[in-house]
Each structure stands twice: as C-alpha cells, then as structure tokens.
Design a protein that fits this description.
The chain is of the alpha/beta class. The protein has two domains: 86 residues, Urease, subunit C, domain 1, CATH 2.30.40.10; 322 residues, Alpha-Beta Barrel (TIM Barrel). The chain is 30% helix and 23% strand. The strands form three sheets. Strands 1, 2, 3, 4, 5, 16, 17, 18 and 19 form a nine-stranded mixed beta sheet that branches. An eight-stranded parallel beta sheet has the order 6-9-10-11-12-13-14-15. It binds N-(aminocarbonyl)-beta-alanine and zinc ion (ZN) (2 copies).
C-alpha cells in the first residue's frame, strides 16, 4: 500500500519544508510534490506539522522496584507512548544480583515481546559487577545493546562502587558503547536519610532534603573524572540542577565527549510540589528529586546551547494508592518514580516551543533526532528521510489540551502535570507505516512494536 501524506509542513532537526511524503510498506520512499491519486490512501496534512516519531530513551516498564512493580507494563506504556507521539522507546533491562547481563536481557525481552505498540530497544543496567558480566559487554554491543547503565545511588539495591564504575567505563568505551549514569552520591544520601529518620522526619518532602543538589553534583563531577581517566564517552541521565549542568558544560568546553539528558519534570515542576496537602507530595517522589525554582532556567539554557542534548521521560509509574502509599509513614519506602512517557512531547512543544524556550527544530532534535543519534538508531529513526522508517506524527500545533489522569492511556492513578494546559496535539501517529493512533484513539495492534537492535556509539 502506498500512502501519501499531502501538503504538511515537514519539520526535522535542521529545517522545515512544505512537501508530500510517500510511505510504502514500512519506509518513507519519497518526499516531494505528488499529484492527487498517486497513493492508495491520501492523508491531507495542510496546516499540520509532520514530525519524525519521537524517541524516549529512558523508560521503566514492568520493572520491580521499591517493593512493588511499575504500574505500566510494555502494553499500557507503549500505547501511552503512541498516544503521545513517541514511536520508539529504549527501556532498562536490570541485572539481578549474581545474574548475568544476558539473563537480564532474556527476562526483559520476555516482558516486551508480543506486547508492544511501538518499537523498542534495551539498555542493560549493571548492578552487580563480576568478571562474567564485565566480559559480556563487548558481545552485547555487537548484538545491538550498546548502552549500559550504572547507578551511583540506591545503596544496597542498584548502586555499584567507583572501582566497578571505572571497569564498566573502560570495557564499554573500548567496545564502542556508552555508559549512562544515575549520578547521585548514594553514600551521602544514606547518611542524610538516617539523620532525617532519626529526627522523626518521615513525610514525602524529606525525600528532597535527603538528596540535595550537591549529592548530584559531586557524583556528576566524579563520573566525568572517571570517564576522562578511562578515555570513554559519558552520558548522564535525568540531570536536574544548574550546578550539574555547569560541570557538563565545562567538560564539553574541554572537548570531552560528555552528554546529558534532562526530563520534563525538572523543567516544569519544582520542589514546592512536596508540600501538597496530605500524602500528595508522594506523587513527586523520584530521584533526583524536584529542585528549587530557578534551576529550570539554566536547564532551558543548556538545551538551547547544546550542552544538554536529550529530553527523556524517565517514565517509572506507581499508583498513589497502594504503591506510593507503601511509604505513608516513611519516605524511604515510597517507590521512586513518576509517569511522563505520554506527555513528554506535548510538554516540550507547549511548554518549550510555544513559550519560546526553544525553537521547533531544537524541539525535534531533543525528543527525536539527538536520541536517535546518540543511541544508535539514526537514520533508521529520528528523522524524515527517504529510506528511514515511516515513524511519523501528524501534529496539530493549534489544538488545545489539558493534561489529566482521567484522560490518559498511562495505567496510573494520577498525572504529575494535572491541569497543565497548552497547544499542540499528535493527531495521527504512524509506526513503520502503520497508523497506530488516530484522533485520540489507539488503532494499532499490540505486538506490532518490534525490538530494534542499535548501532555502536559514535560521537555527535
Ligand atoms: O525516581 C526514579 N528516577 N525512578 C526510576 C529509576 C531511576 O533512578 O531512573
Ligand atoms: Zn535513575
Ligand atoms: Zn530512570
């Protein structure tokens, strides 16, 4: 079947043009001006933007964490992704203590296979470094898993020590991969947490006090130093503070291949959320925590300047009822994480482009093209070009929306952006040429989403 998307404004990271796009089977086969009747199906897109499908490189679906399992699995999470204009995710397969990296991948493939609405890949989180795990890294890079995550926080759960981090960096860098780090000093957090609990400070807002900006900045500094020492590229996930950004910027100024992502929660929400009435502050218990107002201005500047390259969601949803409530009497028992996969693109358009923090090309770059390039998916994904997958979003820049938990596909009982209003909606979403979302309805088939092996890392 040949589909013509007629007369839309095609927007990529580098420019815009008014043109028609031809889709045949799963690919974009032509871009230009075509006569009516050229396709079996014509989609009128005048007045609409045609965007490359967005890519979310930081999700946690069907993940056991904090004594429970995330509310979204690979079906509900990827349908939510489609509804929000995201056509590819990269999720984290987590090594279990004593287990191999391959076993983690087998487990995560089983969770995802046949259950996804959009395409997917996996990073591997190394939580228990042993010789066997270390030696698996080069082969996994070759097999399409070029990115490995290491946690400098969550002591006693996921945290590994500096020696292990350095070994992972050396091995991964030499194999052509990239190490992604959750940069917070877990030992410092443990001490501060102990002090707060001993003083009877158990409410959700103390989560933020137990993880101050300096705990993040110290870890970012240490990670960059270790990456430089090992001669490997570095990537920091969910960077949240102005101070951490300064460290990344100065490393990049010295020519180091250091990359970082931030997330909508650090751009649109701030620490005062923890003071919401009753237990509602628990909705925002995530790590790093929400920060003081003012940090977001620096993060927007970092996105504009290119010192921050990616906006990912860190989607890790837990219901307020029964899941977040596990920490009703002790903030350390509140499972860390919040939903965002469905809303990332709209937040960045309405809150970023419309509010003039970033232009439309930077927007496409942050949510699609740069993630595709850094994570080895480009040019198969992340752009609109002949030969690329026909992952396309017909986006209405004038349509108004209000975010609400009552109207979402994410399988979770709240929305951290409840009441956020703006303009800009994905109206039609194509995944490899198949129309999977149409005017508010999911029209795809679960199981359409396919595992996408990724290329080794190359400097962008
Ligand atoms: O609080 C968060 N961010 N939960 C998900 C796990 C992680 O640290 O990325
Ligand atoms: Zn993290
Ligand atoms: Zn995460």
């Amino acid at each position: 079947m040949r589909t013509v998307i007629k007369d839309g404004t095609l927007v990529t990271a580098s420019g815009s043009s008014r043109a028609d796009v031809i889709i045949e089977e799963e690919k974009i086969t032509a871009i230009g001006s075509f006569l009516p009747g050229f396709g079996d199906r014509t989609i009128e897109a005048s007045g609409k933007l045609v965007l490359p499908g967005a890519i979310d490189v930081h999700t946690h679906l069907d993940m056991p964490f904090g004594g429970t399992v995330t509310a979204d699995d690979f079906t509900t999470g990827t349908i939510a992704a489609a509804a929000g204009g995201t056509t590819c995710i990269v999720d984290y397969a987590i090594q279990t203590p004593g287990g191999t990296l391959q076993e983690a991948l087998v487990a995560w493939h089983k969770k995802a296979e046949g259950k996804c609405a959009v395409d997917y890949g996996f990073h591997v989180a190394v939580t228990d470094l042993n010789e066997k795990a270390l030696n698996e890294i080069p082969d996994l890079v070759k097999k399409g898993y070029p990115t490995f995550k290491v946690f400098m926080a969550y002591k006693g759960v996921f945290q590994i020590d500096d020696a292990a981090l350095l070994k992972v960096l050396k091995k991964t860098g030499a194999a052509g991969g990239l190490v992604l780090v959750h940069a917070e000093n877990g030992d410092v957090i443990e001490v501060l947490t102990g002090e707060l609990l001993a003083a009877g400070k158990t409410a959700p807002r103390y989560h933020a006090l137990s993880r101050p900006p300096l705990a993040e900045e110290e870890a970012v500094n240490r990670y960059i130093a270790m990456a430089e020492l090992s001669g490997s590229p570095a990537y920091i996930v969910h960077l949240s503070t102005a101070g951490a950004l300064r460290l990344v910027s100065s490393a990049r100024l010295r020519g180091l291949p250091v990359y970082a992502e931030t997330c909508p929660q650090y751009l649109f929400l701030s620490i005062d959320r923890y003071n919401e009435p009753g237990f509602d502050g628990a909705k925002y218990v995530m790590s790093p925590p929400l920060r003081e107002k003012g940090n977001e201005d620096h993060l927007w500047a970092g996105l504009r300047s290119g010192n921050l390259q990616v906006v990912a969601s860190d989607h890790c949803s837990f219901n307020l009822k029964e899941q977040k409530e596990l920490g009703m009497n002790n903030f350390t028992k509140i499972p860390n994480g919040a939903p965002g996969l469905e809303n990332r693109v709209q937040l960045m358009f309405a809150g970023g482009v419309v509010k003039e923090h970033i232009d439309i090309h930077k927007f496409v770059d942050l949510v699609s093209t740069a993630p595709a390039r850094i994570f080895g998916l480009y040019p198969q994904k992340g752009t609109i070009a002949v030969g690329s997958d026909a992952d396309l979003v017909i986006f209405n820049p004038e349509a108004e929306f209000t975010l609400s938990s009552t109207e979402q596909f994410q399988n979770v009982d709240y929305n951290p952006y409840e009441g956020f209003r703006g303009k800009g909606k994905p109206e039609l979403v194509f995944s490899r040429g198949t129309l999977i979302f149409e005017h508010g309805e999911y029209t795809g088939a679960v199981g359409h989403g396919r595992f996408i092996p990724r290329q080794p890392f190359s400097v962008i």
